[in-house]
Amino acid sequence: MKPAPAFLPCSAGIGLRAPHTRELLAHPPNVDWVEVHSENFFAGGMPLATLRRVRERHDVSLHGVGMGLASPGALDPDHLTALRRLCDAVEPAAVSEHLSWNRMHGTVFNDLLPFPYTRDALRHVTAKVQQVQETLGRPLLVENLSAYLTFENSEMSEGEFLAELARRTGCGLLVDLQNLHVNAVNHGTDALAHLEALPAGHVMEYHLAGASPQEGVLVDTHDAPVSEATWALYEAALERIGPRPTLIEWDQDLPELQVLLAEAQKAQQRLEACHAALC
Predict the structure, then answer these.
(1) Which CATH architecture has domain 12-278?
(2) Cβ atoms 54, 25 nearer than 8 A
(3) Which of 22, 85, 139, 164 is deepest in the core (most CB within 10 A)?
């Protein structure tokens, strides 16, 4: 497949969670697009009906947390079928998934687990991404991971792994800048070097979120405003890669919707400044 076109508006969106949905429908904010977690709508029913109402007013991005692209063995066919059915029902502007694993020998783990970046792993994940894209009939956006351990047998960096995955499959890249910051703090990695490794033409979206220190490490908790360090990394990404659709994630200790929208406005201001500088 060719590199994914940017179907999302190049503006700031918000992660839409259930407590905010009624207010968003009753008083539509000035936001072009929202992201939801795909798995929350696999069962259909009222949640899907509500999402289709949201889709009438805002572009929707489907963000998966349960596919496990790097899991050993085959993809779960039921999961893939449910995602295809959801895409047909919602017609999302983008579909994304994490670069992680979450299942083994029939056991599913409720986590996004890291793996060593080896040539064998690259061949394995490449086949999975190609299968997903062929099933959905659209490019998949693959997101970098916040990891709390590293592997001695890795043969390349995560950035190099993602770059080669994009070149082999034509998938898009979703660059989570908060995850880059978390890994830089916890492992001493170079977030800017990660950005430099990515092919800009495949980067289709940015994620921004908050993190919290816990027991001596920084944890990607999505329960706080975006930190100044992550805003600085975002500005570096805008300079090196360019403006892209940008999402504010907030999943725990949810604030009022207006607080989330104010965070999105901070990203929007930076996007507009970047656009102006390029004109």
Answers:
(1) Alpha-Beta Barrel (3.20)
(2) yes
(3) 139
